[in-house]
Amino acid sequence: MIANGRRLSFGALLALFLVAGWAQGRAAADSMTVDEIRDCMCRERALQSLREETNVQQTKYNDARQQLQSLETQISNMRKTMNPEDDISVQILSEMIRQRDTLNTQIRTTTYPQTQDAVSKLNAAVSDYNQRCTQRAMLKTDVDNASRDLTCPPAQ
Q: CA–CA separation, 37 vs 31, rounded Å?
């Protein structure tokens, strides 16, 4: 009876070892190559650059919108308090309205489209990165090898 128990235990351990070995072999086969990992590391760097560009564009857009809001408030306040008979006040108001209109046109034709373009580029790059770099495992030894002397092409 003890011999059968030992055979059963040995058989179970052998089966477990074979399954674990198969799983480990499968994990290694499904993992990324060193070149693929290098490519992903370079894509991460490019993503950082795109994030910075997007932040710059977003800041420009937010600043322009804030400036526009400030002009709107000034125009509104001046309209409430100015004397329509005062030519200097009318000229100042006209100039503020011209500035507001110019800024509004700049936001609509330049700042906003540039911000949207930066966001679209970043979103596309993130999507591409996720598709290429997050679907399979990276083995630590391969990551270490890939990071040695890593050189990436210049960002576009």
A: 10
